[in-house]
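anyone seen this seq b4? input:
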Amino acid sequence: MTEATESLLAKLDELEARFEQIEQQISDPAIATDSVRLIALAKERGKLKSLVGKYREYKSVVSQIADAEQIAADASTEEDLRALALEEIEQLENKRDSLFEKMQDTLVMADDMNIGSVIMEIRAGTGGDEAALFARDLYNMYVKYADSRKWKVEQLGFSTTEKAGFREVIFSIKGEQAWSELGYEGGGHRVQRVPETESQGRVHTSAATVAVLPEPEELEIEIGPDDVVEHVSRSSGPGGQNVNKVSSAIKLEHIPTGITVSMQDEKSQHKNRAKAWRVLRSRIYEHFESEKRAQRDSQRNAMIGSGDRSQKIRTYNYPQNRVTDHRINLSLYSLDKIMAGDLGDIIAALKDHDKQQRIENL
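predicted toks r here
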């Protein structure tokens, strides 16, 4: 048994013990009356249930293999019975290896797979109007991918240009495993193509930045009521008679981190406040999670990239119909399909690379 296997099995022993502890706590009458504690325990139990179930099945198969090996090794065992035992060992070993691989995948990717909602922010970078048009194209790409996965997309805020590009667009995507698939999209995206405004036919390079924030449920993050200052003002820009007459624009400022969120797209102050709080919670959550990740694993950034908006992660080359992801040196000559929302191959490659790195760093 390798050191990595021993390490993983030891971790699974810990998780099984924690699962049993949670089940005891849930049945405790004192905890049954504490709804907040009970919900938190039930959620943790739900996350562990599948993995612990597989581990218990794995241990049962290992025990069955040991019994069959004992029968096969017994000199007094009849040949027919020994042959059956050897055949059973082969089948059980395949089952054991399959269960081990599934447990390994679940263990290293479980936290990501359990987050089913993200907030994405796309901003135009260098390149003027062409960068804003590229930001719009990226937004459309993600919306089409979400549609193909039957995820729900909700626009939270946007700022457009005269040529129908996006200076900035903020939106949420909800669906099973949304974070585990879209979490790799954070960073700098670069496009090489002939802009609509270019009369000479020259290829220009423009950029946009993407941030992907896991959207936590309210129970997962506590924000003190005194930690946030709210500013209310009148909206600016297009919007009809309501603009500049009603104080509907909301700005939230989180004092401990300095994170601010402004929202003014809705005519209703209540709706702007609700949207601003969703974005604020996600940004604060990501702020503290990134600190935890840095403390827990200084090698994380080298695995798949930090998701930092300043880091160039991908180039979209239109003349060559090529998309290159620089983190894993992957080039796909299917730019047209990718921009139409067919991101499956590139996301699968990123997930596989990340999984292998996480396994090596267990």
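The radius of gyration is 26 Å. The first helix runs from residue 3 to 26. kinda curious what u guys think
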